[in-house]
Amino acid sequence: MGTAGRILTLVNRYDNLCNPSRPGAALTPHEALSLIFAQFKSRFDSAALSAFIRMMGVYPPGSVVQLIDDRYGIVVSVNSSRPLKPRVVLHEPGVPKHEALILDLEKAPQLGIRRSLKPGNLPPAALDYLAPRQRIAYFFDQAVEPEKPPAAV
């Protein structure tokens, strides 16, 4: 099997864990990555699996999380250099949901993620506010090399 086939096999397995034909059996993105790494890593190309985990982060986009301060949120983007510090849309009852706050956990060192949750485990108000999708689709931009500062003269 070629490189593209190995990558597709891994991505397909992940998608099937998150979006099975029986929705009640769906795993959270975090659970799916953990399961693949813990139980199935020998079935996948190690380079592809490492790259996939780096790209998806510890808490992949779409993960519903509870922060250490007990607020709820949904991960909207990963931080490849700090995988435990993604960007999260927060449930803030005092803020209209169309103006929901996006918190960059890298810029909030006092905050972190306590745990990943299934959307059904959210309190009703947080579930309505965050409105996690039943099926999650992913789109990734091509990585861009950071610009190097001009050489000193």
Provide tags for this entry.
alpha+beta; 14% strand
How helical, in percent, are the residues?
Answer: 25-40%
| CA-based shape | globular
Largest sheet: 5 strands, antiparallel
Strand-pairing-aware structural class:
alpha+beta
Computed CA radius of gyration, to the nearest angstrom: 17 Å
Number of helices: 4
Span between N and C termini? 50 Å
What would the average pLDDT be, to the nearest integer?
84
How would you characterize this protein structure?
- By secondary structure, the chain is α+β, with helices and mostly antiparallel strands.
- It folds into 2 domains: 56 residues, no CATH class; 75 residues, SH3 type barrels (Roll).
- The chain contains 4 helices and 5 strands.
- Strands 4-3-2-1-5 form a 5-stranded antiparallel sheet, with no helix packed on it.
- β1 and β2 form a beta hairpin.
- α1 crosses α2.
